[in-house]
Write a structure and sequence with these properties.
The protein is an alpha+beta fold. The chain has two helices and five strands; from the N terminus they run E-H-E-E-H-E-E. The structure holds zinc ion.
């Protein structure tokens, strides 16, 4: 299996998972529940992870890149790393910069 993304934000991992469900790509999640505690246990070991099978990897990456390029709903752009962040979050999931506007 190959890692697609690791994130302290379990909702982001779940959003990716929903896209994979739709595209019928099989995946495996790690730390889905542990990540919810990561505010109290700030360790990358607790971050949620999503993996796909090697055979699905190329297709999964294509779907994932499309997901990243077309965020659903309102977004804001991180001033530090230029990642697009969903409106309900006030901190960049990628670099933890606080929203400035
Ligand atoms: Zn950022």
């Amino acid at each position: 299996m190959k890692l697609i993304e690791t994130s302290p934000d379990v909702y982001r991992i779940q959003a990716i998972r929903a896209v994979f469900d739709k595209e019928e790509i099989s995946y495996h999640l790690n730390n889905e529940f542990l990540a919810q505690l990561s505010g109290e246990i700030p360790l990358p070991d607790c971050y949620a992870e999503i993996y796909v099978d090697d055979v699905d990897y190329d297709r999964a990456v294509a779907v994932y890149e499309k997901f990243r390029a077309e965020p659903s709903g309102e977004t804001w752009k991180c001033v530090s790393c230029e990642e697009l962040i969903e409106d309900q979050f006030d901190i960049c999931w990628n670099c933890e910069t606080v929203r400035s506007d």
